[in-house]
Specification:
This protein is an alpha/beta fold. It is built from 30 helices and 19 strands. The strands form four sheets. It has an eight-stranded parallel sheet with strand order 1-2-3-4-7-8-9-10, sandwiched between helices. Strands 13-12-11-14-15-16-19 form a seven-stranded parallel sheet, with helices on both faces.
Length: about 750
């Protein structure tokens, strides 16, 4: 197909799509003279030596430095050669210059691309610690600088070495907190040297961070979740095991990324990492998904036959030696004639001390639990021309009918793609050949990648071209963790239900969690939280941070309205109102801020009221709490904005909810005295105001939707006035003087006066 035909074909395909196209694995090729300056800043001058020191098999550079007579089996390995499309100058320049790639994205057929450096496949495997750390820092600084102008459509992955957990954490924090990078490539394994002992057949072993690791990597996984980072891995295994041809690169290359992906996934699952960190997300790139379907099947079949209960059927003590001997004498006379009947000896060949529970770290009791430790945790990068991508979506064949998360991963920039304009065309052939439905292609080219990144960081696509398409294409299915206070009824209950329907993980809280049964049925997690009780705040927020990395959205809704004439309200009435509506809100917010600040993201929704902008008779305590809350929000918004935290004030007007009955129940007033008539009129006004029949009043569902919009809108609003009544009354209060406002209030409330 000619270049012009390819461009037209790309346009036609994109015109028929209802979603953006996300490339989860494009490659840029470092411009060596520029990268050398970044390496020099880290004290690295000999780039050739840097590559030759990589612990992922001896590659081309090392081969070429050996005399031909020494290029024999076991001494060197033929690595990549002629690895870029040399006859396509425009594509070569595109792989090097993000500006040109940005200009050509529509021509290639991509809306957004996650870009991985070519050197990133090597640098985290450098054996020398100083050079390894320095090279990764240099590459991350290089990527952050050259991709910065194009962040709405391109994002580079940081490279994080992982020889030790602490090394990984330090590199991760530098990349995310200092450079602002949003996703991370880790090596699939770390080479470890075996102590010199006579008779050992190997000099090195490969640590995959989970099962039998030399270190406890839990602090690294935990920090990645806290920082909202989805991880990826695609390390070369050329030079390891059966991939050690000194003459044939293709022999060494075939299947090598799948091999490292399988080793890492298997280690993390069987080592219990995905059990301990269900929020961890890891993409295994460039190996396709066929091996992942097989691995899940193998894990299930091994568990079914060799779990700690089933494995006892293989206990050598269960062998009926006499019966086996009788059968051998009857049917195996030639064998018995030669060796006699020695069944115990034969059985003993497999009778090591046991039993061993190979699955104990996974802590599973059923096959379904095993599937849950695998499917949500991993995504799998499939290149455009991979004919087996459809295996991920073949629900009739995938274990337990669960599709795996295959992601479109073009590999542009490397020899796999001789013409970048072909990748979308080749990927879409899965639909044209009937291998993928259009809905499955949507998941492959968009939904799985969008979910993979936003599972860890709901704001991953904020400010990008994907944001608008993500909302439309995923039909509101977003993700993230939300805490809503005051969910026993009204606005809180409706808001929790609305966020859950949108795909958020919702912690719905109230002083009495037994009142939240309906929200649990709607998919929420119910927890006891009293905003005036620091212990309950700590328990809930601590659980969220421990199990899910932290909070993405806080909805401060808990509160009530204390009504009564100012003179007749006690000081305790004022204190209780401020303790719940103001101090309690401050307490919850202060508890979630440190983790939000560390993660450089978060959104705090403060449910205020039009009563934070205007006042009504009888509401002295309530308005004091809401005016103060609005002032706190204005200060807080300024102080936390540069940490990536948004503060949004929502100001609903009258609401048809349980709020009115609560306000009436707390109405303070004496049946006789100076304020008796006023109190009676106030009671009547409250009864009518919250009946749901007042023109311009809002429903709790409308306010819940406003909360969801405020949580997901980019950029975040600062104030949202909800309802026609609220907008009109706030306008009047700002345009009319005090006398005019008081005159208006006299039409709604009786004015206290002497008898």
């Amino acid at each position: 197909m000619s270049g012009g035909d390819l461009v037209e074909r790309v346009r036609a395909i994109r015109a028929g799509l209802t979603h953006p196209v996300i490339d989860a694995d494009g490659h840029y090729v470092e411009y060596a003279p520029a990268l050398a300056t970044f390496l020099a800043d880290e004290g690295i001058a000999d780039v050739i030596e840097l590559y030759a020191d990589a612990a992922c098999g001896t590659g081309t550079l090392a081969v070429e430095r050996l005399p031909a007579s020494e290029r024999d089996r076991g001494q060197a390995v033929r690595g990549p050669w002629w690895a870029i499309p040399a006859d396509n100058a425009r594509d070569i320049a595109t792989a090097m210059a993000p500006g040109l790639l940005y200009e050509r994205l529509d021509e290639i057929g991509l809306d957004f691309a996650v870009m991985y450096g070519s050197a990133g496949l090597v640098f985290p495997h450098v054996r020398d610690e100083k050079n390894r750390r320095g090279a990764c820092r240099a590459l991350n600084r290089y990527a952050a600088e050259i991709f910065a102008p194009y962040a709405d459509r391109l994002t580079p992955a940081a490279v994080v070495p992982l020889h030790t957990p602490q090394e990984g954490i330090e590199a991760l924090e530098h990349a995310v907190l200092e450079l602002g990078l949003k996703t991370v490539l880790i090596p699939s394994f770390a080479e470890r040297v075996v102590p010199d002992r006579p008779g050992l057949p190997y000099r090195v072993w490969f640590d995959t961070y989970g099962l039998d690791s030399a270190y406890d990597y839990d602090p690294f996984w935990r920090r990645a979740i806290e920082l909202g980072v989805s991880l990826a891995a695609h390390s070369s295994t050329m030079g390891i095991g059966f991939r050690r041809s000194p003459t044939n690169y293709a022999h060494n290359h075939i299947g090598h990324f799948a091999a490292s992906g399988e080793a890492l996934a298997k280690s993390l699952v069987m080592g219990g990492v995905t059990r301990r960190f269900p929020a961890l997300r890891l993409a295994l790139l460039e190996g396709g998904v066929h091996w992942a379907v097989g691995l899940l099947g193998d894990l299930l079949s091994h568990w079914e036959k060799r779990n700690i209960e089933s494995v006892h059927r293989y206990d050598p003590k269960r062998i009926d030696v006499a019966e086996v001997g009788r059968l051998l004498e009857q049917y195996g006379k030639p064998l018995v004639a030669r060796g006699g009947v020695q069944i115990g000896v034969a059985a003993g060949a497999f009778a090591q001390a046991g039993p061993f529970d190979d699955f104990e770290r996974m802590q599973i009791r059923s096959a379904e639990e095993l599937v849950e430790l695998y499917v949500p945790s991993f995504a799998f990068g499939c290149e455009a021309d991979d004919p087996l991508t459809s295996m991920a979506f073949d629900r009739a064949r995938t274990p337990h009918g669960r599709p795996l998360r295959a992601m479109f991963s073009s590999d542009i920039g490397h020899w796999d793609v001789p013409d970048m304009r072909e990748v979308l065309v080749e990927a879409y052939e899965n639909v044209e050949k009937g291998w993928l439905s259009r809905e499955d292609f949507k998941a492959f080219a968009f939904g799985n990648a969008a979910r993979f990144y936003t599972d860890s960081n709901p704001a991953f696509f904020a400010g990008t071209v994907v944001e608008k398409g993500r909302r439309a294409g995923m039909r509101g299915r977003v993700s993230g963790t939300v805490l809503v206070t005051g969910c026993s009824s009204g606005i809180g209950a409706a808001t929790a239900r609305r966020f859950a329907a949108a795909g958020f993980r919702v912690f719905a809280t109230a002083r009495r969690p037994e009142a939240l049964a309906d929200l649990v049925a709607a998919g929420c997690v119910a927890r006891a939280l009293d905003v005036t009780d620091p212990q309950t705040i700590e328990a809930v927020v601590g659980e969220i941070e421990r199990d899910h990395g932290g909070l993405d959205v806080l909805v401060n809704n808990a509160g009530y309205g204390q009504q009564g004439a100012f003179e007749e309200l006690s000081l305790d009435d004022f204190r209780a109102q401020l303790e719940t509506n103001l101090i309690g809100t401050i307490a919850v917010t202060q508890r979630v801020l440190p983790r939000m600040r560390e993660r450089r993201r978060g959104r705090i929704l403060m449910i205020s009221s039009m009563g934070g902008r205007i006042t009504f008779p009888g509401g002295a305590a309530y308005h004091a709490s809401k005016y103060a809350l609005e002032a706190v929000c204005d200060v807080l918004r300024f102080e936390v904005a540069r940490f990536g935290i948004d503060v949004v004030v929502l100001e609903p007007g009258l609401v048809a909810s349980g709020y009115g009955s609560t306000a009436l129940a707390k109405l303070v007033g004496r049946p006789t005295g100076a304020y008796a008539a006023f109190t009676a009129g106030l009671e009547a006004a409250l009864s009518g105001s919250f009946s749901g029949e007042v023109p311009g009043a809002s429903t709790v569902e409308e306010i819940a939707q406003a909360c969801l919009d405020a949580a997901t809108r980019v950029p975040a609003p600062t104030r949202v006035v909800i309802g026609d009544m609220a907008r009109e009354l706030i306008r009047l209060r700002t345009t009319e003087d005090d006398d005019a406002w008081d005159t208006l209030l006299e039409t709604m409330y009786p004015r206290p006066q002497p008898d």
